[in-house]
């Protein structure tokens, strides 16, 4: 396996644009790519584009009738099929929607192919991570489910055990449901509790179909969960499951919307905790998955202050050239921010925090809501993997 990592990027992904006022502003992609460049990370990772996902690739996950509906909506946005989630407030139809969504999917699929075949150990597509789309409908700002397509491509190439780790604040429902009955895929989602956040799924009792019992894992954290609580939950559940499942590849989704500045959710993570989550995924890929790691973006609606920084950290981690948290953000990039947004970006690559968390083995507090959430997940799935809850 080559030691060189890959960043999948094509300027065309910025055409995935639901229009003015929509939370998923493509400026977040433009600014992330610019920050990667001004930090010099593109000298530590090979940047290349990939073609859009074709009909055969999309059919690995999506119904042909749905793909046809997306194509029609791309040509005639005013006639989009709302029953398929197109032309709604979350997913407004726009000209070229199919082409832009297929291009994002193509980057993730290409990254999956390179990682699986050993061309590169790690690949990143921060434009990807669109985890809510179902086989037959758009949902939650997601038209095509690129994480599921990437995993399906690995399975087609011969993978027998793939782990999908979703760190977005929203439940990774689309990916979970697509592989609900497939024991070759273990989905793990760490998210805000469905009581308080879309898509209102992801309870710990959702553990997979009878044919794949224990291969859906959900950690539903209470609103307001902090750095230390989130990191405690992450480390209390994921490593033991990875060790038991023995994946051949790890696909992780790094939605930036767990941050305390995100306008659409209610967790209170700092950039520093998010960075530690990305570092953990990288470490686990090496420790449990033979180094095969595909890292994707996802949600994130603090499009200037948060998204570009955390995804630049993600690129640096994948490139084995991590950005020190105390790094000053280049003035060149802040000038680019001002030109595009008439606001100034953050000054450093840190929120100034150094989270420390208590490992699960240090004890369980029955009155603590986060510990209750962790225990509920462990009790639901650990016995199905031969582990003690």
UniProtKB/TrEMBL annotation:
This is Acetoin utilization protein AcuC. It comes from the Bacteria. The keyword Magnesium does not apply. Keywords: Acetoin catabolism. It holds the Pfam family Hist_deacetyl. Belongs to the histone deacetylase family. The keyword Ribonucleoprotein does not apply. Pathway: Ketone degradation; acetoin degradation. Gene3D superfamilies: Histone deacetylase domain. Residues 22-315 form the Histone deacetylase domain. InterPro entries: AcuC (IPR003085), HDACs (IPR000286), His_deacetylse_dom (IPR023801), His_deacetylse_dom_sf (IPR037138), Ureohydrolase_dom_sf (IPR023696).
């Amino acid at each position: 396996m080559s030691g060189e990592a890959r960043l999948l990027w094509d300027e065309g992904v910025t055409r995935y644009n639901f229009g003015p006022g929509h939370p998923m502003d493509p400026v977040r992609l433009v600014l992330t790519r610019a920050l990667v460049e001004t930090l010099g990370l593109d000298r530590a990772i090979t940047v290349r584009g990939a073609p859009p996902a074709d009909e055969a690739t999309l059919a690995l996950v999506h119904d042909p009738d749905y793909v046809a509906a997306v194509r029609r909506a791309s040509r005639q946005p005013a006639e989009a099929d709302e029953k398929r989630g197109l032309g709604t407030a979350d997913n407004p139809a726009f000209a070229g929607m199919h082409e832009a969504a297929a291009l994002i999917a193509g980057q993730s699929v290409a990254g999956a192919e390179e990682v699986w075949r050993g061309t590169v150990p790690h690949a990143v597509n921060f434009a990807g991570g669109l985890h809510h789309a179902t086989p037959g409908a758009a949902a939650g700002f997601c038209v095509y489910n690129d994480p599921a397509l990437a995993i399906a491509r690995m399975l087609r190439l011969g993978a027998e055990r793939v782990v999908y780790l979703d760190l977005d604040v929203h439940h990774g429902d689309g990916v979970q449901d697509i592989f609900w009955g497939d024991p070759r895929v273990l989905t793990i989602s760490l998210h805000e509790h469905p009581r308080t956040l879309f898509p209102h799924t992801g309870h710990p009792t959702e553990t997979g179909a009878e044919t794949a019992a224990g291969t859906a894992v959900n950690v539903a954290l209470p609103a307001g969960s902090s750095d230390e609580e989130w990191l405690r939950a992450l480390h209390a559940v994921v490593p033991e499951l990875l060790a038991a499942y023995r994946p051949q590849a790890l696909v992780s989704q790094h939605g930036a919307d767990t941050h305390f500045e995100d306008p659409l959710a209610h967790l209170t993570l700092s950039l520093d905790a998010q960075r530690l989550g990305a570092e953990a995924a990288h470490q686990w890929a090496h420790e449990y998955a033979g180094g095969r790691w595909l890292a994707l973006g996802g949600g994130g609606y603090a499009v200037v202050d948060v998204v570009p920084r955390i995804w630049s950290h993600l690129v640096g981690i994948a490139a084995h050239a991590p950005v020190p948290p105390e790094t000053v953000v280049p003035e060149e990039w802040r000038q680019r921010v001002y030109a595009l947004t008439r606001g100034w970006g953050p000054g450093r690559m840190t929120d100034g925090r150094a989270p420390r968390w208590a490992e699960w083995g240090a004890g369980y507090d029955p009155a603590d809501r986060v510990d209750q959430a962790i225990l509920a997940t462990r009790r639901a799935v650990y016995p199905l993997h031969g582990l003690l809850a």
